[in-house]
Design brief:
Beta-Lactamase; alpha+beta; six-stranded antiparallel sheet; 18 strands
């Protein structure tokens, strides 16, 4: 289905300003459909007015829909709906009975005849579209007070649309938590006296501990915070505010009713307001629980990081007391592995959620490996390129250990003192190690490349007896469900890792 902007660009001569006006109208007309209990269609003349294109459609949540199928993109001949052309040409609201658009093919479930109210859409004095309210002509029960009040509200908004006063200029999209008609409606006159409060609105007031009769009473007199309403009336634009009353949280959206001043043909005044109100107490309670849960999780990560750093410190102390060089090296390797895992928990302790940017982990890892280079005559430059985006914390933890092992392996073995590659004219050894991060479809790609002496002929990671590469192979293939390949010659080595962005755990059989 094409968007309103695409339809306008392909089939109409509407200007960007006019399309923007229609976008604002469509963004807020769900409220209008609920007030009139009917489907609304937005149609624009095309082909010189000989046909009309349905640009947008909205169904009511307060009543039954007339059009079960999507009508957007439907072209209606002028001969089928003369009422469209009459409303557009006269610039006035026109009502009448006609046939349903498309007949049975449109999925209409109430017969072929419909009652249509066509409202011209005016922008900067120019007619640009027509809104059609379509209801069944089948006789129904006598409307109650709520239905009569809601239809009256819709009629007042329809007048505003035909004058170009609605939608309001500069109004952005409604917040996700904005109240709807079904949540509760209060209708106010120009003096902010309550003309009508819907049953759901009365229930919301009761939850705010307001139990007095509101009919005909000033809004402030019943103990209701009217700041949002006064802002809407003074600025002649909608205002939204959240009110806290004890443990109850209420979102209030005040929408002014704009009318032409009787003594003037152009001056506009706010003659009243519609207040939509929604009880969001349960949402706020859940928000508080999520915030508390998030804070608890971050505190846990912080404590795990501290514990891991304590373990690393203890291992370093133990290494200093050992006389065996092999024992000291083994403990130092364990320290690096513990610190690599601690880096992930340190990042999670700062961030919300359970995902981590791999780049935020790799760069501290590089610094940690650089700090651990013990040979003073070895100059190794580490470079990180690319970005693999955010990954789940468990994936990032395993990758951190893998990368730590690969970088340390390159530092220890790629640039030996008697090797040729990487040696300088002064006899000092060194070289470059590049970590390349990226994505290819649903896979994460990690390359560790060096310009050292390369791997021995016939070397494979599967046959390697070193603990570091054994850990790398196990983590990549088993924990991460990925693959690893090693290539290299006298010009350097390349280790390439491919893993699913969200791998399923695998069991090594």
């Amino acid at each position: 289905m094409s968007s309103l902007a695409e339809l306008a660009r392909a089939s109409t001569s509407l200007t960007p300003s006019e399309v923007d006006h229609l976008h604002r109208l469509v963004a807020s007309w769900g409220m209008l459909a609920d007030f009139c209990f009917a489907d609304l269609l937005l149609v624009v003349p095309i082909d010189g007015g000989e046909r009309f294109l349905v640009m947008a459609q909205v169904r009511p949540t307060t009543g039954q829909t007339l059009y079960r199928d999507d009508m957007v993109g439907t072209v209606v001949e002028r001969s089928q709906r003369q009422i469209f052309a009459r409303a557009f040409q006269l610039g006035e609201i026109v009502e009448g009975d006609t046939k349903v658009i498309g007949g049975d093919s449109a999925g209409a479930g109430v017969g072929e005849r419909v009652r249509v109210e066509c409202i011209p859409v005016r922008h900067e004095g120019k007619m640009i579209a027509v809104i059609c309210r379509e209801t069944a002509t089948v006789a129904s029960r006598r409307p109650g007070e709520l239905e009569r009040i809601y239809i009256e509200i819709f009629d007042r908004f329809a007048e505003m649309i035909s004058r170009g006063s609605f939608p309001f200029a500069g109004e952005g999209p409604e917040p996700e938590e904005a109240p709807r008609v079904g949540d509760g409606v209060i209708v106010l006159d120009e003096d902010l006296h309550v003309r009508y409060a819907s049953p759901n609105a009365v229930s919301v007031l009761h939850r705010m501990d307001i139990h007095s009769n509101t009919q005909g009473v000033p809004l402030a007199a019943v103990g209701f915070d009217e700041e949002a309403v006064r802002n809407a009336m003074s600025t002649r634009a909608p205002a939204i505010e959240e009110i806290q009353s004890g443990d109850t949280s209420i979102i209030v959206r005040a929408i002014p009713i704009i009318e032409t001043e009787p003594a003037s043909s152009s001056a506009e005044i706010a003659s009243g307001a519609v207040v939509l109100m929604r009880d969001v107490s349960e949402l706020r309670r859940r928000d508080r629980m999520l915030i508390s849960k998030d804070a608890t999780i971050r505190e846990i990560h912080h404590r795990v990081k501290n514990n891991l750093q304590t373990i690393a410190s203890m291992l370093r102390l133990q290494a200093r007391r050992l006389d065996s060089k092999e024992g000291r090296l083994a403990l130092e390797e364990s320290v690096r592995r513990v610190r690599a895992i601690a880096l992930v928990h340190e990042t999670l302790a700062r961030e919300s959620g359970d995902v981590v940017s791999l780049s935020d982990i790799v760069r501290p890892l590089v610094r940690m490996v650089e700090e651990g280079l013990s040979a003073p005559d070895c100059r190794i430059s580490f470079t990180v390129e690319g970005d693999a985006g955010d990954l789940p914390a468990d994936v990032t933890t395993s990758l951190a250990v893998v990368l730590n092992e690969l970088m340390q392996n390159a530092a220890d073995h790629a640039f030996p003192p008697d090797g040729l590659a990487g040696n300088t004219s002064e006899g000092r050894r060194g070289g470059n190690v590049t970590i390349q991060l990226g994505r290819e479809g649903d896979e994460v790609l990690v390359d560790v490349r060096d310009d050292g002496v390369g791997f021995p002929p016939g070397f494979t990671i599967e046959a390697s007896t070193g603990l570091g590469l054994s850990i790398v192979h196990a983590l990549v293939t088993t924990e991460l469900g990925g693959s690893i390949s090693i290539t290299g010659d006298q010009d350097g080595a390349l280790t390439r890792i491919r893993i699913p962005a969200a791998p399923d755990p695998q069991v090594d059989t």
